[in-house]
Amino acid sequence: QVQLQESGPGLVKPSQTLSLTCTVSGVSGITADYYWSWIRQPPGKGMEWIGYLAYGTNTYYSPSLKSRTSISRDTSNNRFTLQLNSVTPEDTAVYYCARFKGDYIDYWGQGTQVTVSS
Questions:
Q1: Do 57 and 105 form a contact (C-beta atoms < 8 A)?
Q2: DSSP strand E in the chain: where?
Q3: What is the pLDDT of residue 54?
Q4: What is the pLDDT, as a whole number, of residue 106?
Q5: Residue 38 has pLDDT above 80, yes or no
Q6: 118: number of Cβ within 10 Å
Q7: What is the structure's pLDDT at 102?
C-alpha cells in the first residue's frame, strides 16, 4: 500500500519561505514511472496544482507560481520537497502531495494546513 505524508510548519510569516516535505512509503522510492506532485486548496476555493517532479529529476510548475516555486527530490529517494518563496496570506491553504499515474491521481497525502500570518 502506497502512502504519502506531508510534513512541515503550519505557520509561516509573510515574505518567508514555505517548506514542506512529502514522505513516500510502501514503494521503492520516487520512481520515474509517476509524476510526484504538490497541490493546494485555499480556504473556500478549489484545488490548485502547484507543480510536479517527473522522471525522477525534471520539474514542471504552474505558470502563476513558477517564479516562487521549487520542487526537488531528497537524496534518500523516498522524500520530495516543496519550497514556496516570498509567501503572502494568499498562500494560506491545505497543501497536498500526490502521485499521478498518467493523467489521474492514484494516491494522495492527507494534507497539511499552512497559514501565512504575522
A1: no
A2: 3-7, 11-12, 18-25, 35-41, 48-54, 58-61, 69-73, 79-84, 93-101, 104-108, 112-116
A3: 87
A4: 93
A5: yes
A6: 9
A7: 86
